[in-house]
Amino acid sequence: MQPATGAASVSDSPESYEAAVERLEEIIDRLDSGQAGLRETLDLCREGRELVKYCAAELDEVGEGLKELRLDDLAARLESETA
Amino acid sequence: MGEALEKSRVTNLPGPFAVGTYARKLQGWMRERARVQLIGEVTGVGRSKVQAYFELRDSEGAVPCAIWLNDLEKAGLTEGSLRDGAEVVISGGLDYYPGGGHASPNFCFRATHLRLAGEGDLIARLEALRKELRAEGLFELQKQLHRPALPKAIGVVTAETGAARRDLCAGLERRGWGGSVIWGFAPVQDRHAAPAIGRALQDLAARPEVEAIVVTRGGGSLADLWAFCDETLCRTVAMLRVPVISAVGHERDKTLIDDVAAVACSTPTHAAEAAVPLDCLAARESLERCAVGLRRAGEGAIAHRSRHLGALARGPARALQRERGLLNQKIREIRAASERGLADRANRQERIGGVVLERARRRALGADMEKRRDALKRAEVALRAHEPERTLERGYALVEGGGGEPVTTAEAATAAGEVKLRFADGRVRARIDAAGDGGGERER
Predict the structure, then answer these.
(1) Interface probe with A: pick from B150, B242, B288, B306, most Cβ of A within 10 Å
(2) DSSP β-bridge partners for residue B108
(3) Residue B211: its pLDDT value, please?
(4) CA-wise closest residue to B74 among B55, B101, B92, B59
(5) What is the average per-residue pLDDT within B380-398?
(6) B165 — alpha (psi -120 to 50), left (phi > 0) or beta?
C-alpha cells in the first residue's frame, strides 16, 4: 500500500522549521489513521525521527540565550575586514 | 547662424529695467499671492531685534519663514515654544525684501499668525498621507512577505535607552527564544528620527541573516510619535524585503508605519511574539510528544503485526483441529446413520422377506388350490351326476314327507298319508290311498 501523501526522502533536508513541522503533523495523522501498512509505518517513523532531529537542532540553535549585537559594530567589523 | 539667432532673441527681450524697480515690482507681485496656512516642523530658529526667523520643513521640502516679534507675542506662546522640532501651523503669505544699496534682498513666507500644531492638525495630515499611500498599494507589500516561525536572527530599531528595548528582550526570552538580536539604535522622537530609523531599517534589511525587523518605542502624543508617520520612512518600510513588525506607542496610538508594516503590535511584548511566532518552549514539549508518538507507532506496529503473525501461524493448527472435530462429528453421524440404515434395511429386508414368503406361500397355496379346485370340480361333477335333481331331470320324482324328508318306502308313504312329490320343475301334494292298491300288494 502506498502512503496517502508523498513521503519525502529522509535524506532531503526540510526547507524550514515550519515545513518540517507540517510534514511531521502529516506523518502523525497518517500513523494515527491506522491505515499505513508495516513498511509504510516504518518508513514514516524513520522520516519522522529525522524531522524531529532537524526541528530539535533548529530549536537548539536559538536555545542558548539572546546574543545581542550592534548594527554599528557589525558595520565597523565589515569595514575593517574589507579594508 | 544659431548664435546670431540666440543673440537676436536675447536682445529682443524687454528692458533692460533698473533692478531696484524690478525688485519693487517683484515684492508687489509676491505680496499679491494668496494667503495660506502651512504646517511643518520648525528648524533653525533665530531672532533679530524685530523678527524671528526659521525654516518650516517636512520630508518633501522647506520654506524660509519669518514673523514679526509683535505678531509672535500675539500668538501667546510660552517661552521656548518656538524651538527646533516643534510642529507648528503658520498663516501668512509670500514676501520679498528688495534690499537696497547696502542691504541684501531676502525672500520669506511672512507669517502673521503662528500656533503649535494640535492633534487635529496632525491627524488630518496623517489621514491625507494614509489615503495617498493606501491608494499606491503600499499597505499590502509587507503583508505579503513570509514571516518565518523560527528566525535565527532579528533586527530591532529602537532607542538605545528605553523601556521598549527591555520589554522586547523579556518577551523574546519568555518564548524561550535565544537567537541573535541585532540592534539598530536610532532616535525615536525629533526631526532626525525618521531618517535615522529609515537608515537603520535599510542597513538591517541588507544583512542576509536578519529574517524580521522590529521597530518599537514607547507611548506618547501623536506629535511625539510623528517620526513614525514620516512619508519617506513609511515608503522605505513598504519596499523592504524583510518583514517589519511595528510596535510604536500604546494600543490606541496608530501611526502610519503601523499601516505599512507586515504586522502592527500594541506593545513590545506583542512584537516579540510576532517576530518569533513559534513559542520555543511549547515547541520543545510538542516535539518531545511527537518523538514519543513516533517511537510508539514504530514499536507498536511491529508488536501488533507480530501478534497478528502469531495468530496467523496458529491458525492452520487451529483450523486443522476444528476440521478434525467436524470430521469426527461427521464420522459419528455417519456411523449412527449407518447403524440406523442397517437396522432399517434389516427391518425392510425382513418385511420384504415376509412379503416374499407370503407371496411364495400364497403362490404355493394357489397351485394347491387349483389342484383342489379341479378335484372339487371333478367331485362336483361327479356329485352332480348323483344329485337327485339329475334323476328328477330324467323324469323321476322324489317323495318327501311333510317336513321335506325323503320318503323312501311305501310303508312310510302309507304311514304319512300325505306326501309331496318333487319333480324337476317343482313339488305337488299327493295323498296316499292304501285301498286302491288291491289288497295291500305293493308295487315295485
Answers:
(1) B150
(2) B95
(3) 96
(4) B92
(5) 75
(6) alpha
Peptide bond into B64 cis (omega under 30): no
Counted residue by residue, chain A has a size of 83
* Chain B: residue whose CA lies nearest to A35: B301
Looking at residue B205, the DSSP 8-state letter turns out to be H
pLDDT in tens, B362-378: 777 777 767 767 776 77
Residue pair A31/A41 in contact (Cβ under 8 Å)? The answer is yes
- For cell 314327507, the residue is B401
DSSP labels, B100-151: -SSS--EEEEEEEEEEEPPHHHHHHHHHHHHHHHHHTTHHHHGGGS---SS-
- Identity at B399, one-letter amino acid code: V
The complex scores an ipTM of 0.78
Q: Average pLDDT of chain B?
A: 86
Q: In angstroms, rounded to a whole number, what is the distance separating the alpha carbons of residues B61 and B45?
A: 17
List of chain A residues whose C-beta atoms are within 8 Å of the C-beta of residue B284: 56, 59
Question: Is B432 in contact with B418 (CB distance < 8 Å)?
Answer: yes
pLDDT of residue B139: 96
Is residue A61 classed as helix, strand or coil in its secondary structure? helix
pTM for the full model?
0.60
pLDDT at B279: 92
> Where does the pLDDT of residue B1 fall: very low under 50, low under 70, confident under 90, or very high at 90 and above?
low
Q: Which three cell numbers stand for residue B197?
A: 530609523
Residue in B180, B297, B298 closest to A67 by CB: B180
CA-based nearest residue in chain B for residue A31: B297
* Cβ separation A16–B149 shorter than 8 A: yes
Answer whether B247's CB lies under 8 Å from B238's CB. Answer: no
Between residues A3 and A72, which one has the greater pLDDT?
A72
A79 Cβ under 8 Å from any chain B Cβ = no
| Structure confidence at residue A11 (pLDDT) | 52
Quick one: pLDDT at residue B433? 79
pLDDT of residue B2: 67
> Are A71 and B180 a contacting pair at CB < 8 A?
no
- Please count the CA atoms within 13 angstroms of the CA of B246 that sit on its side-chain side: 29
Chain centre distance of CA B215: 38
**Pairing between strand B398-400 and B418-423?**
antiparallel
A4, amino acid identity:
A
Query: What b/e string do you get for B153-183 counting C-beta neighbours within 10 Å, with b at 16 or more?
Result: bbbbbbbeebebbebbbebbeebbbbbbbbb
